[in-house]
Recover the amino acids of this structure.
């Protein structure tokens, strides 16, 4: 049933490449509860892939499997053509997978700049001794990575709050800073867990624009979970639909809209 | 107009990330250094050295060390006294085993040994947090004091069970032993404080410091951006213990000259240094100095006020001191959890605009 899409260029000029991440037969159990039941889908290079489904469908669990928080009892995760062994989250981060959280997970005690700089940690290599002296490699590395971070700050239009402690920011800006931190890692795959939860229409429009720009300008592959159907259908190239831990649909937004099983899951179905 | 940043533009990222980005701050820092190095050594007397300045400098190093662990990395430790004892006994063993090697090398090596011990006792932090970790480090405190009391090898089987520092020289000047001049005590401590503070500042403003703070603020998010919690926590324990070891070594060799472990490095010392960090400000190098200065000066000030001016019995003043410290801890925990450093920051914010707030 898997659609075989060859590498191609979309109508709006974005390049969709081969398979970046392939999830094969993932099954995740918590005790007797099967949160994810034998789910397979893939994420292609350069695309925006949405995961949708009603509450408790296992979407966040799926993201946690990808980012290494949960280890599935069954199934394989293939990343860039190789099977990924069981990894800790920080090792997954070093592979080039970054994410944001449904409930913002920023470092409240640090400034916006420092928060985004932490996103560069996987790119910073100087050791303890070099940093003690703060001359030569350590200082140079700091300045280089700062330059990268400043580009992201410009891109997301948060120059004015650069030195503000994150704890003082309003919700919408925090979401943006969290996106900035994930982007600072220059990830190959960016996972967004409900990037627009709790936002008003303007904030949603801003965030949608940023997501499209990130995908367009940096060519970053994005997998996102979102509840706002309008946003999902507009943004994504392909959509996976989950319900009670099963996959009930997979395809382009148009296909999903026409899928009877998906409609039943969202609207309910008469039992006769 | 006392303090301003107008017209102070940064043109490079290096200039923006320096320790004192504001010009008047920078001048104040150089002025403090100049006075500390150029003026105080010439005017210092025995009372100022032994009652105030030398303990202040030594406690500052310990407070910086604990602040790295607790303030920057968020790992509560009550083992400071024990780790200071490791520094003291290491430097004692090194001094008596290799008398020909410079005391400066011994103190640094003592810091290194303490770093190893601290890292070993930091291992539980990988599994437990908060109060539970505090209790685990408390075990380190009691175990280490017990060890140095019990095993004769550590105090060279001296009859009293005490260790006492033999006389050692730096550049021909005695810095330990009975004949040490107050200015020599002061200068060797100042040298270590200066270097330790700069190193601590460099570590905390770079990527290592950001890893620590990330672990402190939210360990799950830290892991997701690629921080290995194992190396981040253990490096915090190692660096922290290194500084605490140095301060313990100086406390024994330069300040006291002879110590009995339970008395000098007991649980009270752990709490004293922790209070310095809390009152001074968690997560701030300046706060470590402020806290150390405050808690060293408080008893002196109370004694001058109570005994010398008001003529109260000294036991009453000693009790008052306990009450005052306790009350202050509560005050800071409730009113200003970031301590004196935060008060200083707020003052600077106000001064920036003074006298024209709009």
């Amino acid at each position: 049933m898997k659609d075989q899409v060859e590498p191609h260029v979309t109508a709006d000029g974005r390049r969709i490449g081969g398979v970046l991440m392939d999830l094969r037969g993932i099954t995740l159990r918590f005790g007797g509860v099967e949160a994810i039941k034998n789910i397979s889908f893939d994420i292609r290079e350069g695309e925006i892939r949405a995961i949708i489904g009603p509450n408790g469908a296992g979407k966040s669990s799926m993201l946690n499997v990808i980012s290494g928080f949960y280890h599935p009892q069954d199934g394989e995760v293939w990343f860039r053509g190789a099977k990924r062994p069981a990894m800790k989250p920080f090792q997954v981060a070093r592979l080039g997978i970054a994410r944001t959280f449904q409930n913002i997970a920023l470092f409240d005690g640090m400034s916006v700049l420092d928060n985004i700089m932490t996103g560069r940690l996987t790119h910073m290599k100087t050791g303890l001794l070099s940093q003690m002296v703060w001359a030569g490699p350590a200082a140079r590395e700091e300045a280089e990575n700062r330059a990268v971070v400043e580009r992201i700050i410009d891109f997301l239009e948060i120059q004015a709050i650069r030195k503000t402690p994150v704890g003082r920011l309003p919700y919408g800006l925090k979401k943006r800073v969290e996106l900035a931190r994930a982007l600072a890692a220059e990830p190959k795959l960016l996972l967004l867990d409900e990037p627009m939860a709790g936002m008003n229409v303007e904030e949603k429009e801003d965030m949608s624009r940023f997501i499209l720009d990130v995908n367009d300008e940096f060519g970053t592959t994005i997998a996102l979970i979102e509840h706002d159907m309008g946003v999902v259908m507009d943004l994504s190239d392909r959509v996976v639909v989950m319900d009670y831990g099963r996959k009930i649909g997979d395809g382009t937004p148009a296909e999903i809209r026409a899928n009877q099983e998906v409609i039943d899951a969202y609207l309910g179905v008469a039992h006769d | 107009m006392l303090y301003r940043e107008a017209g102070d533009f940064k043109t490079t990222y290096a200039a923006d990330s320096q320790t004192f980005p504001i010009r008047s701050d920078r001048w104040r820092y150089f002025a403090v250094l100049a006075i500390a190095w150029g003026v105080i050594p010439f005017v210092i007397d025995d009372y100022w050295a032994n009652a105030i300045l030398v303990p202040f400098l030594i406690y500052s190093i310990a407070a910086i060390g604990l602040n790295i662990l607790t303030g920057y990395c968020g790992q509560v430790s009550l083992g400071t006294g024990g780790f200071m004892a490791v520094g003291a006994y290491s430097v004692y063993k090194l001094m008596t085993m290799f008398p020909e090697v410079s005391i400066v090398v011994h103190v640094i090596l003592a810091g290194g040994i303490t770093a190893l011990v601290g890292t070993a006792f930091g291992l539980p932090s990988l599994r437990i947090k908060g109060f539970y970790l505090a209790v685990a480090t408390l075990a380190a405190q009691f175990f280490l004091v017990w060890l140095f009391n019990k095993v004769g090898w550590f105090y060279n089987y001296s009859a009293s069970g005490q260790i006492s520092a033999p006389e050692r020289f730096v550049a021909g000047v005695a810095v330990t032993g009975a004949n040490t001049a107050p200015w020599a005590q002061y200068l060797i401590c100042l040298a270590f404080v200066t270097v330790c503070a700069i190193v601590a500042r460099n570590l905390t403003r770079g990527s290592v410091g950001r890893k620590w703070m990330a672990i402190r603020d939210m360990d799950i998010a830290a892991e997701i951006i690629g921080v290995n919690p194992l190396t981040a926590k253990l490096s915090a324990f190692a660096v922290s213990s290194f500084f605490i070891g140095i301060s313990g070594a100086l406390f024994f060799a330069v300040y006291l000259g002879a110590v009995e472990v339970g008395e000098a490095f007991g649980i009270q010392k752990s709490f004293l240094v922790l209070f310095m960090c809390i009152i001074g400000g968690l997560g701030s190098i300046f706060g470590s100095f402020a806290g150390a200065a405050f808690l060293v000066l408080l008893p002196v000030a109370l004694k001058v006020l109570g005994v010398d001016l008001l003529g109260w019995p000294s036991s009453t003043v000693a009790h008052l001191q306990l009450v005052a410290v306790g009350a202050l801890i509560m005050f800071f925990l409730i009113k200003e959890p970031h301590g004196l450093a935060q008060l200083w920051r707020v003052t600077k914010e106000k001064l920036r605009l003074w006298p024209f707030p709009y």
